[in-house]
Amino acid sequence: MAESTASEFEGSLGLLDCIVLSLGGMAGSAIFIFPGTTGQLVGSAAIGAWFLAGVLMLALGLCYAELTLAFPKTGSVAVFPRETLGSNPHVRSFASYLEGVGYTVGWVLAITISALSIPDYLAVILPAAAGNTVVIAVSAICLATVCNLLGVGVTSRANLLLTGVVLAVLVLFLGVGASHVTLGQYDPVGVSGPMKFFAAVQLALTSYGAWTVIPSAVEEIKEPSRTVPRAIVVSLALTTLLYTGLVAVVHGVVPLGRFTAGDVAITAPLRVATELMGVEWLQYLLALSAISAIFTTMLVGILSAGRVLFALGENGTLPSVFRTTSSRFRVPWVGILGVGVVAGALATVPEYFYQLLVVGAIVGTGLPYAINVLSFLGLRYYRTDVSSSFRAPGGTVLAAVSFGVLGIAMLGLSSTDVVWSAGTLVVLSGYYGVRYVRHPNTVAPARLDDHP
C-alpha cells in the first residue's frame, strides 16, 4: 500500500464511461424504492415532485461542473468548501468536513437502503428470499465492496453491463405500463399541502445524486474539461425524463390507498405496479432489472464515498489512514472498506428503514448540496484567482434559486423526523470538535496553494 498522490490515480474513464456510471447510479435502486414513499407523502403530485427535483439537480450539476474543473481533485466535492469559503481556515475546514462526511453518510445510507430492498424484488423469483432480508442485504454489500476494491475498471465494466439491462427493462415497463394507466387515479392532485410536496422533492432529489461520482473521480477521467460537464448534463437530462415517466406510470396503475405504511408498495412500488398489470413475464424481468439496478447504485455509491473519505484524509479532517491507496489496484481501499463495513452493519437493523431514508436525504443530500452552492458563490466572488474551463450559465441566479429550493425541501422533509437528522448532525459535529481539540494544526491548515 502507498499514500496517494495525484499520480496514484489512472485517467481511464471516457465520456461514455462517465455517462453510464452516472446513469447506472441514478437509474438504480431509488426509482424502484422511493416512488412508494413520495406517493405516501403526496399521492400523484409526486410526478411533479420528481420532475422538479430533476430540474433542480441539473442546476446543481452545472454549479458542480464549474467547481470540479476549477479544483480537479479526487473526492472533489469535499475539496470545494476548503478552497472557496473565505479566509478563515477553521470555517473552511469545518465546511469541508460537513460536506464530505454528509456526502458519505448519504451514500452509506443509500447503499444500506438499497441492499434492504433487494429481497422484496428477489422474492418474485425466489419466494424464500422474503424471509432472509438481512443475510441477502449484507451479502450484496460485501460483493459490491469487493468489486470496488478490485479497481475502477472492474466497477465500470460491471456497471456498464448491469445498466444496459436496467435501462432496457425500464423502457419496456414504460411502454407496457402506459397501456394500463387509469387516468382517474391521478385525482386529486396536491391535496397534501406545499410542505409535504417539497418533502417529496427532497426525497426525489436523493434519487438523482449518483451523478456526483463524476466530480468525485475527476482524476480518473480522460479530458475532464470536455467530459465532466457533458456527462453531468446528459445523464441528468435522461434520468429526469425516465424518472418522471416511471412515476407517472406507477401512479396511473397503483391505487392511492396502497401507499400506506406496511404495504409492499412503499418499498417495491414498481413490483406492485407490474403485479396489478397482470403481465407475468414483465414481473420477472422487472425483478431482475431491480436487482441489477440496486447493485449498480451500491457499486457507484461505494466508489464515490470511498474517494471522498480519501479527500478528507488528505486534508486532515479525518485520520490520514483514509488517504491510503492500493499500489496494485490504485483505489483508496481504506475508505472503500469503511463504507462497506458501516453499510453492512446498518443493514442488520431493517426496522429503521424510514429513519435511515430521512437522514440520508437531509444530512447526506440536502446539506452537502447547500454547502457546495455556497462554494460555487465563493469561487465566483472570492477565488477570483482561479479560473475554470467551464462556466455555469446563470451564475448567481442559478445558485440562489437552487439554494432556495433546497432549503424549502429540506425543511419540509426534516419536519417528518427531526430527531434522527438533528442527532446525526450533533454526532458528526461532535467528532469534528474532538478531533480539532486534539489536532488543531492538522484539521485546519492553510489551503493547498496557501491562498490568503
UniProtKB/TrEMBL annotation:
InterPro entries: AA/rel_permease1, APC_superfamily
GO molecular function, one term: transmembrane transporter activity
Cited Pfam families: AA_permease_2
Keywords assigned by UniProt, alphabetized: Cell membrane, Membrane, Transmembrane, Transmembrane helix
Coiled-coil blocks: none
Transmembrane feature ranges: 12-35, 41-65, 100-118, 124-146, 158-177, 197-218, 230-254, 284-310, 331-350, 356-382, 394-413, 419-437
Annotated Gene Ontology cellular component terms: plasma membrane
Cell compartments where the protein resides: Cell membrane
Keyword Membrane among record annotations: yes
Membrane topology: Multi-pass membrane protein
PANTHER family per record: AMINO ACID TRANSPORTER-RELATED, MEMBRANE PROTEIN
Name of the protein in its database record: Ethanolamine transporter
Organism for this UniProt entry: Haloferax mucosum ATCC BAA-1512
